[in-house]
């Protein structure tokens, strides 16, 4: 029996660290006299998806996997289980004497591979001078933006922001504005701003009630 280390126990699909070069720990009681180590990646259905001293799970789908090691007598290499075979069936066969192989089993490590979050689309319109904030980043200009963040397990969350910035200008028509009038009525006619917009009347000096 021997122990070995893995880079982590949680990964995102396609992580470069899912290409794992494995070997027994230096402090393990591994007998290299006539024996060699080999490692197996096993999916949740107990199917072997990769084997060797380098395991490549970069293209593996999301899910839980178990990484196990064997030490085997080199003359029995052809009796080792192969990719697509069932891991538990191999172990049962050796226990029942159906496969005569001299080997030792190491510890196993469980790992989880997570998918990235689905892309979230935000399509919004703001007035000039306003901002939209996504994942701590602020945007105030018309354009299409892709914003990346990380979810709880470190996998990318992606937001696609389609932002439209509009200038709202109002004009007052007519010749009734003069300082001799006590009251002037202002009305917004034909307003075509974005849904949810509000209109305010302001003066540089004076008051509007």
Task: Describe the protein.
This protein is rod-shaped. β9 and β10 form a beta hairpin. The protein contains one helix and twelve strands. It has one helix spanning 87-95, and strands at 10-12, 19-21, 35-42, 48-52, 54-56, 63-73, 103-114, 120-127, 132-134, 137-139, 143-150, 156-166. The protein has 209 residues and is mainly β. The strands form four sheets. A five-stranded mixed beta sheet has the order 1-7-6-3-4, with no helix packed on it. Helix content is 4%, strand content 37%.
As a percent range, the share of helical residues equals: under 10%
- What structural class results from the helix and strand content? mainly beta
Helix-strand sequence = EEEEEEHEEEEEE
Shape: rod-shaped
What do the pLDDT scores average to?
81
Q: Report the C-alpha radius of gyration, rounded.
A: 33 Å
Strand coverage percent: 35-45%
Largest sheet: 5 strands, mixed
Strand order of the largest sheet: 1-7-6-3-4
Q: Low-confidence runs (pLDDT<50, min 5 residues)?
A: none
Tally of DSSP helical segments: 1
Q: State the end-to-end CA separation.
A: 87 Å
* Total beta strands: 12
Please name the defining characteristics of this protein.
rod-shaped, 12 strands, 1 helix, 5-stranded mixed sheet, 209 residues, mainly beta
């Amino acid at each position: 029996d021997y122990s070995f280390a893995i880079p982590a126990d949680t990964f995102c699909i396609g992580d470069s660290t899912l290409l794992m070069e494995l070997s027994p720990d230096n402090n393990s009681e591994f007998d290299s006299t006539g024996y060699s180590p080999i490692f197996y990646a096993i999916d949740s259905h107990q199917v072997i998806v990769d084997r060797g001293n380098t395991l490549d799970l970069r293209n593996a789908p999301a899910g839980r996997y178990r990484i196990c090691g064997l030490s085997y007598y080199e003359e029995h290499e052809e009796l080792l289980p192969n990719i697509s075979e069932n891991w538990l069936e191999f172990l049962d066969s050796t226990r029942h004497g159906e496969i005569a192989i001299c080997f030792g089993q190491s510890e196993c490590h469980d790992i989880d591979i997570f998918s990235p979050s689905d892309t979230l689309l935000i399509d919004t319109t703001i007035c000039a001078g306003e901002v939209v904030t996504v994942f701590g980043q602020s945007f105030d200009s018309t354009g299409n933006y892709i914003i990346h963040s990380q979810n709880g397990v470190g996998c990318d969350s992606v937001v696609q922001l389609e932002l439209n910035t509009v200038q709202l200008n109002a004009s007052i028509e007519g010749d009734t504005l003069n300082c001799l009038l006590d009251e002037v009525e202002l009305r917004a006619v034909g307003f075509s701003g974005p849904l949810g917009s509000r209109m305010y009347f302001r003066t540089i000096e004076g008051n509007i009630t």
